[in-house]
Amino acid sequence: MALERTLSIIKPDAVERHLIGQILARFEQSGFRIAAIKMLHLTKPQAEGFYAEHQGKPFFDGLVEYMTSAPVVVSVLAKENAVKDYRTLIGATDPAQAAEGTIRKDFAESRQRNSVHGSDSVESAVREIAYFFVDTEICGR
Ligand code: RTP
Ligand code: MG
């Protein structure tokens, strides 16, 4: 399996409930190395650009409003098979559908306020990492 990077966001609902530390600990306990990390309060254009693939969907405006409602913690996580393994760690989009022991099962409030984001493919990860970080901000291999 190849060493990969994926893009994680700890979303506003989790930041507001002081869950940053617990969620970062889950990442590290699950074998991910934090290669880059920053906290920021997304602007409307930043959130719209990040979720451009969902433009026009019924949940898009609410998603942008939510993602700009409080700060987020964006990180680059490195591990073998990181993209798929991270999606397994966070669980299904809707916490009601998420498997036991996943981050969304344990922390998410709703299908929208679901605590974390993860890249859905290696191609998305490359694009999403470049959306938030320049190469010199990413540490290690
Ligand atoms: P993400 O991109 O944030 O990792 O989540 P995902 O792949 O599991 O889900 P996606 O379909 O890409 O949706 C992006 C985010 O939009 C919000 N959402 N709300 N109200 C709704 O029906 C609905 N559907 C999606 C969620 O915050 C979801 O993570
Ligand atoms: Mg997605």
Automatic annotation (TrEMBL):
It comes from Exercitatus varius. InterPro entries: NDK-like_dom, NDK-like_dom_sf, Nucleoside_diP_kinase, Nucleoside_diP_kinase_AS. Keywords: ATP-binding, Cytoplasm, Kinase, Magnesium, Metal-binding, Nucleotide metabolism, Nucleotide-binding, Phosphoprotein, Transferase. This is Nucleoside diphosphate kinase. The keyword Nucleotide-binding applies. The keyword Cytoplasm applies. The gene is ndk. It is an enzyme of class 2 (transferase). Its cofactor is Mg(2+). GO terms for molecular function: nucleoside diphosphate kinase activity. Residues 3-140 form the Nucleoside diphosphate kinase-like domain.
